[in-house]
């Protein structure tokens, strides 16, 4: 008997529709979307089906996640095989993308992954190309909700290098890499979608 490699992230079912709603207004009409840290692959299969005019390129550094992505997207016509991509690395196994999407990564990774994401997006994107981030953020040095504060404490207990990031620090890192702020969209469950564009 074979084991199903598909992994499940319960939050995907709750946040995928609101994320799609924003992406419809931000992503280009054609081209390749690089998803950094695709995790289980559930977002990749859902978003690619809803946006069939785009080619979806998932990626993840974890072999188990890549197996899950392959299983979830096996029948998808516009999804490429997942890449082994470490956001913090100085080089990525892809040369260009028309958009970059990163969902729920930068708070569950060292700060170096956020910095690497900004540098990588600036290398790959064309002028005006979007980098779309989704997740919880602190604003003005404070959490936006008690639940986010508890979540942050739990993350830091697991790994001191993790934690909910300050939106201002993320924006500063993006600007330093050659990206400009485009928009911040309030999302359900005290999350934000943050969009930067390549200069």
TrEMBL record:
InterPro entries found in the cross-reference section: DUF938 (IPR010342), SAM-dependent_MTases_sf (IPR029063)
Pfam families from the UniProt entry: DUF938
Any coiled-coil regions, as ranges: none
Gene3D superfamilies the UniProt entry points to: Vaccinia Virus protein VP39
Record-given protein name: SAM-dependent methyltransferase
């Amino acid at each position: 008997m074979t084991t199903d490699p598909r992994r499940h992230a319960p939050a995907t079912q709750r946040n995928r529709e609101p994320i799609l709603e924003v992406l419809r207004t931000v992503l280009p009409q054609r081209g390749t979307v690089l998803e950094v840290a695709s995790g289980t692959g559930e977002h990749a299969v859902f978003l690619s089906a809803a946006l069939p005019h785009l080619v979806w390129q998932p990626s993840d550094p974890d072999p188990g996640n890549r197996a899950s992505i392959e299983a979830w997207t096996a029948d998808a016509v516009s999804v490429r095989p997942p890449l082994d991509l470490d956001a913090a690395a100085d080089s990525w196994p892809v040369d260009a993308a028309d958009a970059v999407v990163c969902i729920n990564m930068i708070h569950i990774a060292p700060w170096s992954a956020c910095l690497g994401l900004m540098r990588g997006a600036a290398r790959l994107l064309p002028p005006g190309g979007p980098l779309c981030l989704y997740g919880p953020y602190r604003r003005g040095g404070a959490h936006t909700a008690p639940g986010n504060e508890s979540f942050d404490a739990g993350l830091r207990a697991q790994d001191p290098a993790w934690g909910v990031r300050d939106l201002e620090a993320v924006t500063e890192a993006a600007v330093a890499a050659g990206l400009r702020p485009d928009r911040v969209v309030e999302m359900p469950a005290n999350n934000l979608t943050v969009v930067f564009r390549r200069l």
